[in-house]
Amino acid sequence: xxxxxxxxxxxxxxxxxxxxxxxxxxxxxxxxxxxxxxxxxxxxxxxxxxxxxxxxxxxxxxxxxxxxxxxxxxxxxxxxxxxxxxxxxxxxxxxxxxxxxxxxxxxxxxxxxxxxxxxxxxxxxxxxxxxxxxxxxxxxxxxxxxxxxxxxxxxxxxxxxxxxxxxxxxxxxx
Length: 174
Description:
Blueprint: E1 7-11, H1 18-30, E2 34-39, E3 45-47, E4 53-55, E5 58-59, E6 70-73, H2 78-82, H3 86-97, E7 102-105, H4 109-114, E8 122-123, H5 130-135, E9 139-140, E10 145-148, E11 151-154, H6 160-173
Parallel strand pairs: 1-2, 1-6, 2-5, 6-7, 7-11, 8-9
Antiparallel strand pairs: 3-4, 10-11
């Protein structure tokens, strides 16, 4: 297993894109990683856009990014809620400064925009937030996945296999 012993934060709030959260969690666990589901409250059940639930393991406030090897931000409408928490933005900035893998798909770029870590970075996302990404100083490209150092970005559910292949490769190399 490529990721044995690696610890990953999977952020969650309501209205996450079901596949964009669950597919990465399952793939990473298949590779031996420990994936903590982290929401506003520990033990809370969050519901995806299509009704698939997930229960959080930990609360935002209880997380020390130094204890983790990577972070994933789901897509859907969840990123618009997540970016309102200073603890999330601080967590993302900490992971960025430590050059730990940061995975973002679809609308997840909103969190990275609010954390102010995209200037000069090459990324992709759902075309719906292309202008937001560019206005944050990123170079936006319409391709399935982009790896720019430790930031791995992807567009939407059909790109999940490419996204996770690259995320796993970056995390395994750390």
